[in-house]
Amino acid sequence: MQRLSHLYGRLLDGLLCLAALLIFMMMLMICLDVFLRNIGARGIAWSNEVSEYILYAATLLAAPWLLRRGQHIRVDIVLRALPRRIAYVLEYLSDLVGLACSVFFIWYGFRVAQDSYSSGAVSMKTLVMPEWWMLTLPPIAFLLVAGEFVFRMHRLALMPVGAREETASAA
Questions:
Q1: pLDDT at 169 over 70
Q2: How confident is the model over 11-20, as pLDDT tens digits?
Q3: First vs last Cα of the chain: how many Å apart?
């Protein structure tokens, strides 16, 4: 399980790098668009729309990595005040709830993407593309988040009883 967790972490690192690369490309595109408009040339008509898609994709790509690193939103003031065993149980329960929510979002997201594909729905903005292309990202991202919740529960089972020491903590 340790080896699998390590490989999974490498996958999440790669997805984070992809998210960072997308953000960098978005920055270059916006700079070029602004530059072109300031010199009197036509800007890049689709830059705003592509920027929206990049922000959406980068958020979904980075979410499992943030969960793995403990850099997601976490309020642990109560966990720190509780007895160690109760804090430990609550840590496990929160991971279990997170896993259940992720599984629901995978199922629901897959159904929505499948319905969009079946109906042939198209997103018509500056760019015209099948709607399901963007709707497939959430179930994939939540599948990765669900995987991380499984690894979190495994790591929790191996650690001493008590609350986790996360990177982002209120303590």
A1: no
A2: 999 999 999 9
A3: 30
pLDDT tens sequence across 14-53: 999 999 999 999 999 999 999 999 999 999 999 999 999 9
Mutual angle of helices 84-119 and 137-158, in 10-degree steps: 160
Cα dist from 20 to 34, 59, 70, 146, whole Å: 21, 10, 18, 22
Cβ neighbours around 61 below 10 Å, total: 23
